[in-house]
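Input:
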Amino acid sequence: MPYVNIKVTREGGPGGNGPSPEEKARLIKGVTDVLVDVLGKSPATTFVVIDEVEMESWGIGGLPVPDFRKQSH
Amino acid sequence: MPYVNIKVTREGGPGGNGPSPEEKARLIKGVTDVLVDVLGKSPATTFVVIDEVEMESWGIGGLPVPDFRKQSH
Amino acid sequence: MPYVNIKVTREGGPGGNGPSPEEKARLIKGVTDVLVDVLGKSPATTFVVIDEVEMESWGIGGLPVPDFRKQSH
Amino acid sequence: MPYVNIKVTREGGPGGNGPSPEEKARLIKGVTDVLVDVLGKSPATTFVVIDEVEMESWGIGGLPVPDFRKQSH
Amino acid sequence: MPYVNIKVTREGGPGGNGPSPEEKARLIKGVTDVLVDVLGKSPATTFVVIDEVEMESWGIGGLPVPDFRKQSH
Amino acid sequence: MPYVNIKVTREGGPGGNGPSPEEKARLIKGVTDVLVDVLGKSPATTFVVIDEVEMESWGIGGLPVPDFRKQSH
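Output:
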């Protein structure tokens, strides 16, 4: 009966604007497999929800991601 | 002091692209009423937040919802 | 395919330490019914997860709930 | 190792359609500073994620925010 | 910069009261690997947070999990 | 109408088992002030919910926090 929420910054992927449908399908498959393998959960009652977050809305080190990366270089 | 977060796939509704404002208002009213009826919570401090999730970003059975439904038929 | 997360302060209920199992069952039933009635969702793929939060860990008005209530009187 | 999720209604800001990038940067800086000051957390492992929620998708008092505000006047 | 939240019912594991520390470590490793493999994310900025939820606080099919399972047999 | 969820590892504080009530009160006050200062939000409708997460249930770098810290030394 697991519920998994994955939040990633909206970047990368084929158009640079986030994971493609194929990448999302692989995330869903991969994470579900981990739950099945480690805890023996049933895939039928395993939800995986992927949220994409704008880069300017994600902070690390006290800065939005774009500024944090500039500063790290 | 309850906080309720409802996540649904973005589908259905009048245009097929998710719940209408009227449906969201009914969800908010219905869920708030349940909190009031069962736990005696005050509506004034009950938040309900509805998130709509793209079909391709929601997984069940190890598959994105559209693939899961095809497979189930 | 809905997922609902309900967060409430850990108070009330028969022992004053949070909702009883019967109250939780009624919350789950009530919220699921709202999703079914308003959006036609299937109960079989509707998850409801209830989190209880210590009073001192919930803030409103810039204060933990116990202090907020004292101040409001 | 903190993770902070801020949900706000999509309103206000320079165009009336939500916080500007500068406001988001100030939110991220301000909240990270609080975690550092109060708990001595490291900014490098402090994530802040800001979600903007449509007004019609946020309920309070059993009503969507726009209806709640009309009623309060 | 991913954040993953895994919610599971508190059951199974060596004592029947939820995943062991070793199982949690394998969940963390497995899910992080999926993010690295599919999206090329850096493990250093990948957070995985596991929440265990009491069986009576998790609903499916309009029932708490223990009642749902009884009914399914 | 903001909702803020703060997740921290259960450590530190006076007994080494997480933030004290006073520290939680300061977190709630500090974060609410940021929302008021930056976005002009009303404290009366600003919720702050603090979750403490066991160290073994929080992963970074593909490892539970205790293992990650050992490795980093």
